[in-house]
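Record type: monomer structure entry
Structure origin: computed from sequence
Chain ID: A
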Amino acid sequence: MSELTHVDETGAARMVDVSAKDVSARTATATGRVLLSAEVVSLLRSGEVPKGDALGVARIAGIMGAKRTPDLIPLCHPIALHGVKVTLDVEDWGVAITCRVKTADRTGVEMEALTAVSVAALALFDMVKAVDPGAVITDVRVEEKLGGKTGRWARDAS
């Protein structure tokens, strides 16, 4: 079993010291889905969601979420983000959210990508809940990470 890095010898939480790590280019991609009623999908496609530009609000919320990750996740390092791209694709079942985050730093950006997807999904839910209070946020996960000691990791297609 590998050693837990976020606790000290007494079991107390701590932020990992990454100062000895090399700075390297790092990228992470995360995805998630918001399952929506056919009515909301139609409103998104026509741009007629009663609260306004739901997809635009969700996209900006996702970017803001990535930037605020260390304020939300207690042991997450505050790092400079060099790029955050949030994509929302309207499908027949709802909205597919993808976020890709880039940095050149000593630690990865998986948490930033996951937070961006999560916050985008929450903002989208907020924008459509009056029409579809049964919307479901699901399948938030890391799809790929590049850089650092691990190199490349990708989720299996299966």
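Annotation 1: The chain is about 30% helix and 30% strand.
Annotation 2: The first strand starts at residue 24 and ends at 35.
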